[in-house]
């Protein structure tokens, strides 16, 4: 089933994703370039029409200001009186939820394939930190970081879905009367409907990284908000996070996740703290890599002996022999033995010749004696 909106053709038979506010389909423009189209129906929410329209307008206002390689870009938007259409950059790798399921099917036991999940978590961490740094420079908080909202395009991880995002200046103006988004990713402050800061995104990112490192296992669970809060409080009274991540080889990620999942916002790492830790880690990694390369070059440097030409003076023969690790006395002994062998051979040759002459003389004498007897 196809639908034409503006200069786009929406293929409603290809569903890319579905969220609380709408569905996302594959679309193409007149140049056959692919886009993702999010369709939000305002008819299905007559009771909350005004609130939903306000959320969508804010999402469009935020997305129109964003231009970062790790954030999904918006191309166009359109409202036909019933539905809102948001045309966005298409990401060919799906989302992180899909990626984790693929890894689980290939490597079902994260404990024995820890490096695979760690590699994914590290790659996601770099890109999402970059996107958050950009958002905060624009005074925007996301408020809905989760696996489904991190899309993959050509190996890059991009933050998407700004339906719950806010400008920092709007936080106090619009107190929340209900919990929006996915509770298991939300900070204790959001769950309790308390005052919060950009560090609420840091908590969500910590949950996401933990989930990646553990192969899809969430750190906290609950049938409702109260159960979830209780589980968070009970586990964080102990060293639960640290103990669960003991098998993680990347100690930087292990440390950062444990410091991101802290109930008290004052004690929780800020984005600035994360960037400082990351930069420090990168500098150390580069130094270690440089040292390893230097050490490898030293170990692997081939031995190239100096060439010896016939132009070397004779008085330097001893020095040359030392460089070639051949003792001079060996050469002298070899020459003496060779001369001795030649002398002995000559003597033997001389002795052999005299013996032949004597033998010939004896044979001649015998022959003469036989002739005289016959006569």
In brief:
By secondary structure, this protein is α+β, with helices and mostly antiparallel strands. It has helices at residues 49-63, 96-106, 114-137, 188-191, 199-213, 225-236, 240-244, 251-260, 271-300, 317-323, 328-374, and strands at residues 2-5, 8-18, 23-29, 34-41, 74-79, 83-89, 140-141, 150-153, 156-159, 166-167. It has three domains: 1-90, Phosphorylase Kinase, domain 1 (2-Layer Sandwich); 93-301, Transferase(Phosphotransferase), domain 1; 317-374.
Labels describing this entry:
single chain, 375 residues, alpha+beta, Phosphorylase Kinase, domain 1, Transferase(Phosphotransferase), domain 1, 3 domains, six-stranded antiparallel beta sheet, two-stranded antiparallel ribbon, 11 helices, 48% helix, elongated
Descriptive report:
The chain is of the alpha+beta class and 375 residues long. It has three domains: 1-90, 2-Layer Sandwich (Phosphorylase Kinase, domain 1); 93-301, Transferase(Phosphotransferase) domain 1 (Transferase(Phosphotransferase), domain 1, Orthogonal Bundle), CATH 1.10.510; 317-374. 48% of the residues lie in helices and 15% in strands. The chain contains eleven helices and ten strands. The chain has helices at 49-63, 96-106, 114-137, 188-191, 199-213, 225-236, 240-244, 251-260, 271-300, 317-323, 328-374; strands at 2-5, 8-18, 23-29, 34-41, 74-79, 83-89, 140-141, 150-153, 156-159, 166-167. Strands 1-2-3-4-6-5 form a six-stranded antiparallel β-sheet, covered by helices on one side. Strands 7-10 form a two-stranded antiparallel ribbon. The chain has a two-stranded antiparallel sheet with strand order 8-9. Strand 8 (150-153) and strand 9 form a beta hairpin. The radius of gyration is 42 Å and the shape is elongated. The model is unreliable at 298-348 (pLDDT under 50).
